[in-house]
Write a structure and sequence with these properties.
The chain is α+β, with helices and mostly antiparallel strands and about 180 residues long. The chain has 6 helices and 11 strands. The radius of gyration is 15 Å and the shape is globular.
């Protein structure tokens, strides 16, 4: 499945994304790019905001781009910015009301993370860490930091050890299109 995902994204090419301020970004060309699908009302995605911001601060000085993609069709730029402010998020915020990115990446839940290499190939997809072992089943201790490890591997010029993990979160709301 992962090979098919990588092939489809490479063949179709990654779309440029426009953040909530109207600035256009390419998803390739950086040492690594992190794309995380979120919604403002998912408690699991919200619980990860502090960790995602910690990783952004850790890796952004190394040229890593961090994008949070809001997938709720009812969320506009003002709501996304307010949500980011409440959680101290400084990642680039993108709205995906029509689910073009959801479809391109094959995202299914929030939060769901994707790591792209410099060429824009998806080299990791899945959970942020193993805090959740099932729906509503939160662990006391995190043993595997999957997203962080994937970014570190890409920065070291390697592929992540596990390129796909199962994440638990909120289902992505249906698009009106």
């Amino acid at each position: 499945m992962m090979t098919a995902l990588i092939a489809s994204l490479c063949l179709a090419g990654l779309p440029d994304v426009t953040d909530v301020n109207g600035k256009v970004y390419r998803l390739n060309g950086r040492p690594a790019t992190v794309v995380v699908f979120v919604t403002v009302d998912c408690p699991i995605a919200n619980q990860y905001q502090v960790e995602l911001e910690r990783q952004r601060r850790q890796f952004e000085p190394h040229g890593v781009g961090f994008f949070q993609v809001h997938v709720d069709p009812d969320v506009d730029a003002a709501v996304a910015k307010k949500h980011a402010g409440e959680f101290g998020v400084r990642a680039m915020l993108v709205l995906d009301k029509e689910h073009k990115l959801v479809k391109a990446f094959g995202a299914s839940v929030t939060p769901q993370a994707f790591v792209l290499d410099k060429a824009g190939r998806v080299v990791y997809r899945g959970r942020i860490d193993d805090r959740y072992s099932g729906l509503g089943k939160q662990r006391d201790r995190v043993d595997h930091h999957d997203l962080r490890d994937a970014v570190q591997a890409v920065l070291a010029g390697k592929l992540p050890r596990g390129n796909e993990t199962l994440g638990y979160g909120c289902l992505i709301p249906r698009s009106s299109n």
